[in-house]
Structure formats: C-alpha cells, structure tokens
Specification:
Helix content: over 70%
Strand content: under 5%
Oligomer: single chain
Number of domains: 1
Strand order of the largest sheet: 1-4
Largest sheet: 2 strands, antiparallel
Structural class: mainly alpha
Order of helices and strands: HHHHHHEEEHHHHEHHHH
Number of strands: 4
Distance between the termini: 47 Å
CATH topology: ABC transporter involved in vitamin B12 uptake, BtuC
Radius of gyration: 22 Å
Length: about 350
Amino acid sequence: MRLLNFKKLSSLDLVGVGLLIFLLLVPYVVPVVLNDFWVNIIAELMIWSLFAASVNLLFGYTGLLSFGQALYFGMGAYGVAFGFEYFDLSFWPAFLLGVSLGTLFAAFAGIFAVRLTWHYFAIITVVFSLIFYFLAVGTKELTGGDDGLPISVPPVLKFGQFELSLFDLTFQYYFIMVIVGLAFYMKWRVLESPLGRAFVAIRENDKRASLIGLNAYKIRYLSFVLSGLLASLSGVLFCLFSRYATAQNLFWTVSGEGVVWMIVGGAGTLFGPAVGAALLIVLREELSMYWEHYLLIVGVIVIVVVTFAPHGIMGLIKDLLGSRNSKLTGSDNGELLEKQGGTGNE
C-alpha cells in the first residue's frame, strides 16, 4: 500500500488534508471547545456547500448562471417528505424518491432552459422556480405551504433490536458527511473526465467547441441535469436534517444565496463554493446574535470580496500561494547558482 507523501503535497493539498481530519473529529472536538450546537451548524454547512456546488457546476464550469436551483432543492425535500408521510416508505426508498424527483424536474426544465444563454437562461430558470413555488403555496393541504410539512424519519438501518437513526446526532453528522463527500467525489470525477473538459470548452467558446464536434446543447443539458441531481440531493439531506419540507425551499432567493456563496468562494473551483457558504453562514449566525441588521455587514463583506478578489477567496489564496512559491523558487535558484559559482547572466 502506498503511503501519503506529504513532501509532494502542495499548500492547498495540506489544507485539504487538515480540513478532512478536522471534519472527521468534529463530533468529539467541537463540543469540548464550543458546544453541541456547532456540530449541527457544521453539518448544515456541508449540506449548503453541496447546494452551492450544484450552482457552480453550471456557472463555474459550463458558463450558465441559474437562479432556479431552489426548484430541484425543494423538490428533493418534498420527494423524501412525501415518501415518508404519504407513501409510508422506509428510509432508502424515500431517499431515492427525493433525489429522483428533483432530478426529473431538472431533466424536464433543462429541455427548454439550455436552449438559451446569458440573462435569458437566468430568467427562464427563475420562472420555473416561481411556477412551482406558487403551486406549492396554493396546495397547502398537501405541501404544508410556507408553514411546512413536518416528517417522522424512520431508521436508516435496522437489524432486529439494533438500529441506526438520524436522531443520534453523531450518526446524523457522519451520515451527512459521507453523502456530501461522495457527491463531491462524483463531481470531481466528472470534471476530470472528457465530459468535464467539454463543459469548460463550451463555457469558453461554444462555437469553436462545435467545430471540433461537441454538441453544445447536449453538453449543457448534461451539465444541467447533473447540477439538478446535486441540488436535489442537498434538498433531501436538508429535509432529513431539519425534519420538514416547506414551499420556501422552492423560492428563487434560495438559489440567489447559492450564487452568492459560489461567487464569494470562487466560481470554477471544486471547493470554492463550500468556502463561501461556510464563511457567510458562520458570519450570519454570529452577527445575528449582536445586531438585528446583521445582513448589512454580510452585504458589505460580499461587496469587498467581489471588488478586491474577483475570482473569490479560493482565487485569492491561489494567487497568494503562487506568488509565495515563485519567490521561494527564485530564492532556491539563486542559491543554486551561487553554489555553482555563477549568476544567471553569465
């Protein structure tokens, strides 16, 4: 078995390894340092990070700005809620129903949406989201409307007297972590594949991409459906986490938050949206305890980041690490030349 060679890891890789170790230890370390409340906050952060990643797959890699991700997020939540409350399904069938329902809505909306680009695409995604938001509000007896539809979550696994349930908060944390981790891994594999490179080619110049045989419509459609899959998965997880589904999850402002998190963290990067979501949600939670107009401060922070770091926080970190590495490389080369008895000009 090959051992991890830390000497060959970049600074960002080391940060990623450190973050993974931290996430694995959260249920045991965080309650000692802070309290149990923050374990739930970090679990919720992972869910919203996945939602922001769905927005990023469309905009950051395919060049399509969607304000309709809330539709697939909300339908994923309603799918799992209906499975429990109306169809009396066990955990995993209801889980799959939620993911499938959100993805099917994405597959349907994408047929029409990806024929458009730029602001036309953004507008039609908002329209789809609003249509089903008003339908959910208007059928309150079925959906619970804005009041929400509470659910009772059955055990995830059960063998005789032994069962694993999301009512165990430690198990719930690791369950969310594993599902989100697998989703990010799937996204990474797609982006590293020829399909992922096709996404980028379409984003950069769809006309040139078509000259080498790429079908812009099909590639955008695949990106749209995969993005909807990630959004619906995050919706299912949020419903299981919060124990209810609500029509508010379908409203376009939920999509808007995902867009802001993506831009602040860094569009077109794998974990940038997660960084943006974590930063802004933690700021929101902390500032809300001290000032009722805390969103003004959050808004100012967003403006500052977008103005001075147009590629987001991850882009800023990469630029800083790049300049530092170039300085170190230059220093190492200078020392090498001195040892060899010459300078670069000889």
